[in-house]
Amino acid sequence: MMNPVKVIILSAPSGAGKSTIAAEILGDETLKCSFSVSATCRTPRPHELNGTHYYFLTKELFQEYIDNALFVEWEEVYTGQYYGTLKSEIERLSNAGRNIVFDVDVKGGIRLKQFFGDQALSIFIMPPSACELKKRLQGRNTESEESLTKRLQRAEEELSYAGNFDVIVINDELKKAIEEVKQHIISFISK
Fold it and tell me: What is the DSSP letter of 52?
């Protein structure tokens, strides 16, 4: 059932650049990667589409999926906001014969690495500093002061998990970080 070609796990604190880097990886057809769409019960942002950015579920349906063991991993990332990786999504991409890219929170990344073992390369995207991370989050103009504070507190905790990943890439210069991630992926998928 779950036998993807290779699995690439990108994790980072919110604002570190993992989604931007993931988009670049997915845009490079030589890597033959497809995106694993996560499920969440949070409200979609204005630009987000169901089935493309996330599978948007109600809290009740998300809980039903948990109860029926339909997730490989799931996490309550923020109070009342659940995120998870559906087994059906992995199966869909595996059947297509594509390398799977996950853009997930840090704890989810650790769980996915445990699940896939040597079949996965886990990459932690490290912000250059806490100050720069705050600046990036503020620059999004999507956060209230309260949610910004929550994200920064969570980021502090998430940074302590960096050593659980196969590779740490510091995103102080985006183009350089993208190239570094691509080189790690090329090396991994050529094994």
Answer: T
For 7, what's the count of Cα atoms within 13 Å in the CB-facing half-sphere? 28
CATH architecture of 7-189: 3-Layer(aba) Sandwich (3.40)
Amino acid in the structure at residue 162: A
Residues linked to residue 100 through DSSP beta bridges, in sequence order: 7, 34
pLDDT in tens, 14-72: 778 898 999 999 999 999 999 999 999 999 988 999 999 999 999 999 999 999 999 99
pTM over 0.85: no
Rg (CA), the chain: 16
| Domain ranges across the chain | 7-189
Could you give the CA distance from residue 172 to residue 148 in angstroms, rounded to a whole number? 21
pLDDT tens per residue, range 32-46: 999 999 999 999 988
Cβ atoms of 41 and 57 within 8 Å: the answer is yes
> For residues 91 and 2, what is the distance between their CA atoms, to the nearest angstrom?
6
Helix (H) or strand (E) holding 44: none
Residues linked to residue 33 through DSSP beta bridges, in sequence order: 99
